[in-house]
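Section: Multi-chain targets

For targets with more than one molecule, the full set of components is provided together so that the structure can be written out for the assembly as a whole rather than chain by chain. Components appear in the order listed by the source. The example entry contains two components.
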Amino acid sequence: MAKILIVEDYKDLSEFYQEFLDEDTLLIASDGEEAVSLYKENKPDIVMMDLKLPKKSGIEATKEIMKIDPSAKIIAITAYGSTIGSKALEAGAKEVLRKPIRFNELRDTISKYKSL
Amino acid sequence: MDSKNQEKTLDELWDNTIFKAINCYREGKYNEAAELAKLSIDIAKKAYGKDSTKVAVSMNNLSLIYEVQGNYSEAENLSIKALAIWEKILGSDNSDVATSLNNLAGIYVSRGKYKEAEPLYKKSIEIKEKLFGPSNIELATSYNNLADLYRLQKKYNEAESLYLKSIDIFEHNKDKSSSIASALNNLAEIYKIRGNYSEALKLHKRAFEIWKNSLGPDHPDIATAINNIAGIYYLEGNQVEAEKLYKEVLEIDEKAYGKNHHFNAMTFNNIALVKEAMGAYGDAEKYFKEAINLSEKTLGENHPSIVTFVNNLAGLYRAREIYPEAEYYFKKGILILEKAFGVKNPDVAMAMLNLAEMYESEGKIEEAKRLSDSAKSIYKKILK
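Its structure, encoded as tokens over all components, is:
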């Protein structure tokens, strides 16, 4: 069992993740600030980080989480292409997935980082 | 011609045919290699009988060619037949049997039958350890293959330790073949997953040099090696170097497979991603469209592999707030997914939610809700 922090401001998509990743323990954040605070409190195994978020962007949240825990496994998720994607990698994300994600790709990526 | 002379002629013919088949295979000319391997099976049957080891060798060769070509079921059938012949004639503790076990396991891996593959690889290692001792190069290949399986199963620690053992043996034997390059390349992939890009890059570059020297600069495997190096540069943010290398990949692949091969579409896509990361949006758009057009031409308009390129282009438009174009391509992606996998599929639901999210950010609340409701009804049905 892995603890996964889902950071997604679009409620319907967040619900979708929750429905399909139900074998894991899920923590849910809908903005960047909440993501950082939930990370501090719970130290999840994996973070699925949307990059365009209210209050604090996914890039900023990634940077802060990496300061708290340089070994954090953050999978950046974006609908805005590789310009922002490459910034997420610079900030410390392990990988960038582009929306719409293929379900097997999501499962495969999560399972890859669970195994590390 | 008397029967002894005829047998000698067939013997030479078989040797010659096998030699040519192997050469074509090494040069990446797989169709020619397959025809020659088929011919060698016929010759071997005629010269030595249907259950001879030479028939098994020829079947095994054809099976390897089919595997490279993606014809896995034929490859599996032939490999099982070859293994049965070898076991019948040579018994179980024999190096040809070990090789055959290894090959069949490789086909199982290609078909995703990981559970079937593991005991075969282990048995092959056991035979080779018994026959050759711990430092034999044959063993290095087997360690490498089992490590590949563990890597696919995401058992990274087990895979790493076997790759290191395999590389040690190759180095001990001063081997400079493509096998050590594969081990280095695959170990690099594990370091990449762990985020250790500098180590991954070092290993990928070593693999590339070995491949270049052993296979020549125009072999398609060289393109794969360059592609892997480019991937690390991309992850490190070194887009200039990544672009240069992806263009080399394109050049090699176009030479090997022709300009109209679907392999090139993925490279167009990769160049587009690099261009997009650099902020060269016009170029990125052009390359994404090249990827889409080439895939449509070579694989058909509704092939699921096109979805990635279509969505990437849509994402580019969305990032630049060119919403009508983004909408057009996101919808196109949804249609292809529906046609390929049916409506009741999580990818379809996810793609709909993605478009709904874009509608919402544009302020098209009703359209967003309608689409989101459709997506929900799809995934609720899947979850039932």
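The interface with chain A takes residues 154-156, 193-195, 234-237, 239, 273-274, 276-277, 279, 284, 307-308, 311-312, 315-316, 318-319, 330, 333, 346-347, 349-351, 353-358, 360, 372, 375-376, 379, 383 of chain B (CB under 8 Å).
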